Amino acid sequence: MDRRAFLVAVASLSGCAGYFEEDEREGVTDPDDVIVIWDTLVRENAGTEEERVTIWGVVRNESDRELGYVEIRARFYDANDEELDAVIENVEDVTEGREWPFEIEFQHFGERAAEVDRYELEVITSL
């Protein structure tokens, strides 16, 4: 079992799955260390075979330390809340207070892109 899976399992059992305070454990970060400060869904060439869907956004390191890895996971859903796809964007070595623009493109185009109704973002960090 890898370390992240182990920590999640321990936190789940202790009733604190969503929150870790900084302590002596290497790599453990607070879920609020990086926040999405702006995001929007951009649709290009709507109604054509070339239709594309992209999420544009900006995240900011709210912590008082450099983070070695920041990952933004986007999940795309249709109007029936069925997940169509999940895409990951990442960056390394994000200094404290730094803002980072991101762009996450839905992997399909045309009719599949037209099915995208909404999305969800998840930020994952490590030291």
Strand content: over 45%
Which class of secondary structure composition applies to the elements?
mainly beta
Query: Measured on Cα atoms, how large is the radius of gyration?
Result: 17 Å
Mean pLDDT, as a whole number? 82
Query: Distance between termini?
Result: 20 Å
DSSP E strands, number: 6
CATH classification, class level of the largest domain: Mainly Beta
- What's the SSE pattern? HEEEEEHE
* CATH fold type of the largest domain: Immunoglobulin-like
Helical coverage, percent range? 10-25%
By CATH, the architecture of the largest domain is named Sandwich
| Domain count | 2
Describe the structure.
By secondary structure, the protein is mainly β. It folds into two domains: 1-26, no CATH class; 32-126, Immunoglobulin-like. Helix content is 13%, strand content 47%. The protein is built from two helices and six strands; from the N terminus they run αβββββαβ. The strands form two sheets. The protein has a three-stranded antiparallel β-sheet with strand order 1-2-5, with no helix packed on it. The chain has a three-stranded antiparallel β-sheet with strand order 4-3-6, with no helix packed on it.
Topology:
Layout (H helix, E strand, L loop, with lengths): L2 H12 L19 E11 L7 E10 L5 E11 L5 E12 L4 E7 L5 H4 L3 E9 L1
What are the key terms here?
127 residues, mainly beta, Immunoglobulin-like, 2 domains, three-stranded antiparallel β-sheet, 6 strands
Concise summary:
The chain is mainly beta and 127 residues long. It has helices spanning 3-14, 111-114; strands spanning 34-44, 52-61, 67-77, 83-94, 99-105, 118-126. It is built from 2 helices and 6 strands, in the order αβββββαβ.
